[in-house]
Specification:
The chain has two domains: 2-215, Rossmann fold (3-Layer(aba) Sandwich); 222-296, ACT domain (Alpha-Beta Plaits, 2-Layer Sandwich). It is built from 13 helices and 14 strands. It has helices spanning 40-47, 69-73, 91-101, 108-119, 134-146, 164-177, 190-196, 214-219, 237-245, 275-284, 299-337, 348-366, 369-380; strands at 2-11, 14-24, 29-33, 55-60, 63-64, 76-79, 152-156, 182-187, 199-204, 207-212, 224-231, 250-258, 261-268, 289-296. A six-stranded mixed sheet has the order 6-7-8-3-9-10, with helices on both faces. A hairpin with a 2-residue loop joins strand 12 (250-258) and strand 13. Residues 372-381 have low confidence and may be disordered.
Length: 381
């Protein structure tokens, strides 16, 4: 249905999206999961033709989003993070406006009734949008995206700011859309993604770091997760990380301070039970265990690990870039010291030789003092 291929978006030297590729098919709800700034909204804006990419392509049912924009966009219903609602309109008036803007064919009144029923807004269709709750406003926005019965529904952070009851209603609505549409939504909330999505794409710093169904992602991590809370005191959390990393069977360790305590999240290799070794190692290093649990690796564990590794990689790349820049500046400065303002090299040894040669030439031309006296005397005689 939608093919995103090698998508890259740059803002000056900042790369917001880097070589992203994935496919969206009808009958599924896809989730873009990532921390704020991961590039989720940028990708959605490019997919809908609202933003141009520097590289890559987006095709919707074979139509390029730029080269065949009208055909491609007619197949997309889009709800941005902030729904573009007109507060002084009623939902009925707003949907009529959207139907006209989309040039919806057929009986528009019937189409408006259809989406109003699907989204559960019939009872508020005559009220002003500004008087509606956040949940109902989100429903109106989704109804607008459904006008014209597009093949693809794209929802950017559709449940932000909803209370628990509104959240349940909107999630149920989104889940029901998979029957007739290909749906993709973005969120930085893992519970949101696991509740409605059957395929997950995890992003960090503009790149895809993992993708698959929930089962596939969890199955990719064969080990277990050991969560430990230990006493801090004289030992630093970075030292705890080093101690735990040396235990056989430990694959990954994340530690961070929590007041007087240190929390550690350990991911083990397949087939290893490290709980007793962890307790012993911390006791021996004056960081006694307060609490320890072992569980199956969850999506949260995977997400934290992948985004942390991506952040560490990004920080390392930044340091390397800064070091390279400083090195280049130093090299340029060194070159500048050996050049005159006119671009001619100052070669001191050569300059001394030139001065010596000039002195010899001057003596040769003028002659020695004795020769001058002889010449002078000869003239007088």
């Amino acid at each position: 249905m939608i093919e995103v291929k090698n998508l890259t978006k740059k803002y000056g030297s900042n790369i917001a999206v880097k070589d992203v590729s994935f496919n969206i098919e009808k009958g599924h709800v896809y989730g873009l999961l990532g921390p704020n700034g991961a590039g989720k909204s940028t990708i959605m804006n490019i997919m809908t033709g609202c933003l141009a990419s520097n590289e890559g392509t987006v095709t919707v049912d074979g139509h390029d989003i730029y080269e065949d924009a009208s055909a491609a966009k007619s197949l997309i219903g889009y709800l941005p993070e902030i729904p573009p609602l007109y507060p002084d309109m009623t939902p009925g008036e707003y949907l009529e406006f959207i139907a006209k803007a989309k040039k919806t064919k057929g009986d528009r009144a019937r189409e408006i009734r259809r989406v109003s029923e699907v989204c559960g807004i019939v009872e508020v269709s005559g009220k002003l949008i500004k008087t509606l709750s956040k949940g109902y406003r989100q429903r109106v926005g989704i109804a607008g995206a459904l006008i014209g019965d597009p093949e693809v529904i794209i929802l950017d952070e559709p449940t932000v700011g909803l209370d628990p009851l509104q959240l349940i209603d909107v999630r149920a609505l989104i889940s029901s859309l998979r029957q007739d549409h290909a749906v993709i939504l973005s969120s930085h909330i893992m519970g949101e993604i696991t509740a409605v999505c059957d395929y997950i794409i995890i992003m960090a710093f503009g790149e895809i770091v993992a993708e698959g169904t929930l089962d596939e992602l969890e199955e990719s991590r064969k080990g277990r997760t050991v969560t430990v809370v230990s006493r801090g005191g004289e030992i630093d959390y970075s030292e705890v990380k080093e101690i735990l990393s040396e235990i056989e069977g430990v694959d990954y360790v994340l530690t961070y301070p929590r007041g007087d305590y240190i929390k550690s999240v350990i991911e083990t290799k397949e087939g290893y039970d490290v709980q007793s070794d962890v307790e012993r190692a911390l006791e021996e290093n004056e960081s006694p265990v307060i609490e320890i649990t072992t569980s199956r690796v969850s999506l949260e564990d995977i997400f934290i690990r992948l985004t942390t590794e991506a952040a560490e990689k990004k920080a390392l790349e930044s340091l390397e870039a800064e070091a390279k820049e400083e090195s280049e500046k130093a090299e340029k400065g060194s070159r500048a010291d050996t050049y005159s303002p006119f671009g001619t090299p100052y070669l001191e040894e050569d300059n001394d030789d030139d001065e010596a040669e000039e002195g010899e030439e001057a003596e040769t031309e003028s002659g020695s003092p004795e020769e001058e006296n002889k010449e002078t005397g000869g003239d007088e005689e």
